[in-house]
Amino acid sequence: MDEVSAERPGAATAAPVPGGGDGGAGGADDGQVIRTRALTKRYRGGQLAVDGLDLAVPAGSVFGFLGPNGSGKTTTIRMLMGLIEPTSGTAHVLDRPMPRSARTVLPQVGALIEGPALYGFLSGRDNLLRQDAADPTADPRTRRARVAAALDRVGLTAASGKKARAYSLGMKQRLGLAAALLRPRRLLVLDEPTNGLDPQGMREIRSLVRELALDGTTVFLSSHLLDEIEQVCTHAAVMAHGRLITQGAVAELAAGARGRLVVTTPDTADAARVLKEQGIGDLAVTDGRVTGEPPAADLAEVNAALVTAGVRVRGFGVERASLEDAFVALTGEGFDVAG
Ligand SMILES: Nc1ncnc2c1ncn2[C@@H]1O[C@H](COP(=O)(O)OP(=O)(O)OP(=O)(O)O)[C@@H](O)[C@H]1O
């Protein structure tokens, strides 16, 4: 697509990059790698893409930036990376204001935005060598070793001599990640890193993200896939129509929504009748299952009522709420986007 991921504006500086933990007094809130206050973007056509966003991304988290298509995720990421100016509000990345500190901040940030910019006629390895050579702060003497380490990291060593145009989409994404990993990073920003990948490619990128996080790198990734966020992320922010709906630890977000009572039975009609008598609301009957709101009464009493009425119960319990339940509860809308 565009050149965003390859031509990082910050790479133009040869100034030494301050080491980690340089927040200090007077910086943004400690322990937060990204912090925005009332961040807003209105495009020239009048479209309000991001509306008063207050984002707080804790250091060391795998932070999922979740929202349906068009909810403002890419626009936010472009502001965080200093690629576009906010209309109003502020954004701090690694304790420094963006876009003002882009030259200092961006060398510490690995970004994969809108697909990696690759040369199809070059091999995977040569693409990385070229990208590394474009970074004036990168030491040419250690270039080959760093490229080899990055290829190894993403599992592309065996395919590194192949031309990039022969790579699958998943391999291209991994090469893009390798490019982001050519130097140590405090933060990785990945915009829809599994978009367009087949299930196997998705699994590979997700496990890679988990591994990277084990090293202590904070990972900020956007996705429109709820289950992806639940599988990979420790924290999440949920966007809808340019606004922040909620943010926090994934486990807590899901816990905020009530789960569903689920009864598995061949006698669904009888089960639904008994559950209704027991005061269970919002009943839904699907193939071999009756679900409803969790009861206020003792679960054991409800189960006993089913059994007494002769309902053959194969399974009974309250299913844990998912992030999807939380989204629906918070927005009143289904999270219905094309995968
Ligand atoms: N350059 C632009 N000019 C005008 N409107 C834009 C521009 N870029 C995005 N928008 C609009 O801003 C809103 C948010 O778009 P954005 O791309 O940030 O959302 P998103 O959550 O990243 O969605 P997607 O996953 O589809 O990219 C959308 O309504 C979109 O049409």
UniProtKB/TrEMBL annotation:
Gene3D superfamilies: P-loop containing nucleotide triphosphate hydrolases (3.40.50.300). InterPro entries: AAA+_ATPase, ABC_transporter-like_ATP-bd, ABC_transporter-like_CS, P-loop_NTPase. The keyword ATP-binding applies. Signal peptide: none annotated. Residues 1-30 are annotated as: Disordered. PROSITE patterns: ABC_TRANSPORTER_1, ABC_TRANSPORTER_2. Keywords: ATP-binding, Nucleotide-binding, Transport. Pfam families: ABC_tran (PF00005). It comes from the Bacteria. GO terms for molecular function: ATP binding. Residues 18-29 have a biased composition (Gly residues). The keyword Chaperone does not apply. Coiled coil: none annotated. Residues 34-266 form the ABC transporter domain. Belongs to the ABC transporter superfamily. PANTHER family: ABC TRANSPORTER, ATP-BINDING PROTEIN (PTHR43335:SF4). This is ABC transporter ATP-binding protein.
